[in-house]
Design brief:
374 residues; mainly alpha; 2 strands
Length: 374
């Protein structure tokens, strides 16, 4: 409305000047859409409203007031039409927001929870594909990915597809998180900050998985390369080491799947879940060559990639430990432990509650979750 009033009156309602200023102000909408994607609605509605106001005024000037009102539509000058258009758009936005909330006041919250469960499930799928890819490359089972229908080509395609889906879901969750904090907290406070922390942990985990997958591509070349005379002994031993290494673990896929099911169904996690520790090389190196991974061999082929894969795997484990703690805090964890109290203990005569149940942080209507302890 303000832009339309400026366009119309700053040039004393001269048609040429109005068109020039309209051309300048109309580009503010695309700029907002490109620069601030979260304000896309504002970038679209603003130019449309200004176009309706200026376009109607120029039309009346062209055809005349009598022709403009001949169809029964009332004529209003720009300084009256602008506020009317603004009130109409504001009323429409309010009704849209109102019927998004009612009659299901926590629908946005439920969708966010379901999206989180879907993102965890996609992350488990991506890790499973990455695990098979790395294992094939370490053992020299990786074939030519340029051949259509080959195992490597199908793994690469599945990995790219899952990566795109993960990023798409996580981006949508970030956008929804930015909007949810403005919702009226009907039905209980939504744990927006906890969801935001989980999203960031998942994004970090996904990034390190991509790094490990990319760094392991050199192992295929290493298995097919011919060792030089100076490094043949080291390379032969190194090939044996990576061929017997379990850098990744399918236990992580199981863990992510369990977290996805708990979040999706709004139920507590099973007890005693643990993130697997990274592969330990000390004993294997003592049997082969304790000096195999010394920094003196940093220039050897495959050494740098192996180091990147190891560091990336350790970072994945650390992020998963953080993610597991955050999901436990969100949905709770079952606890079946019990304590034996001696009858000779005076404190045993006091009445004690032997079963406690703590609700999770999921909002009402999102399923039952919590921690039970006996």
């Amino acid at each position: 409305m303000l832009a339309a009033l400026v366009c119309w009156y700053i040039v004393d309602t001269k048609t040429a000047g109005v068109i020039v200023f309209y051309f300048i102000f109309i580009h503010a909408g695309p700029y907002i859409i490109v620069k601030y994607p979260t304000l896309t609605t504002l970038g679209m509605i603003g130019p449309i409203t200004m176009t309706l106001i200026i376009g109607y005024a120029l039309q009346v000037r062209k055809v005349g007031i009598e022709a403009a009102i001949s169809n029964g539509q009332a004529y209003h000058p720009v300084y009256v039409l602008g506020p009317l258009r603004l009130a109409t758009v504001s009323g429409g936005l309010f009704l849209g927001w109102l019927w998004t909330v009612f009659p299901w006041p926590i629908s946005e919250h439920s969708e966010q929870r379901k999206n989180l469960g879907s993102a965890l499930y996609l992350l488990a799928n991506y890790y499973s594909v990455m695990h098979e890819t790395v294992r094939a490359r370490l053992r020299g089972l990786d074939d030519d990915s340029t051949i259509k229908g080959s195992v490597s080509q199908r793994l690469d395609k599945a990995r790219r597809t899952l990566y795109g889906k993960c990023n798409l879901v996580l981006s949508g969750m970030r956008l929804r998180s930015a909007v949810i904090k403005y919702d009226v907290p009907i039905g209980g406070r939504f744990p927006s900050q906890q969801f935001q922390d989980i999203i960031e942990s998942m994004q970090s985990t996904l990034n390190f998985m991509v790094l490990v997958s990319f760094a392991s591509t050199s192992f295929t070349e290493l298995q097919n390369s011919e060792p030089s005379t100076s490094s043949s002994e080291w390379l032969h031993t190194f090939r044996r080491l990576i061929g017997e290494t379990n850098i990744t673990s399918q236990s992580i896929t199981t863990l992510l799947s369990l977290m996805s099911a708990s979040v999706t169904n709004g139920q507590a996690l099973p007890p005693y879940l643990r993130v697997p520790e990274p592969f330990q090389y000390s004993q294997r190196l003592d049997e082969m060559d304790a000096d195999l991974l010394s920094v003196r061999h940093i220039a050897e082929p495959g050494y740098a990639s192996f180091a990147v894969v190891q560091i990336g795997t350790k970072c994945i484990i650390d992020d998963l430990k953080k993610l597991l703690a955050q999901v436990k805090d969100l949905v709770g964890e079952l606890d079946f432990s019990y304590h034996v109290i001696s009858t000779k203990d005076g404190a045993a005569n006091e009445s004690e509650e032997t079963l406690t149940y703590t609700k999770s942080n999921l909002p009402a209507g999102h399923g039952q979750g919590g921690a039970a302890q006996t």
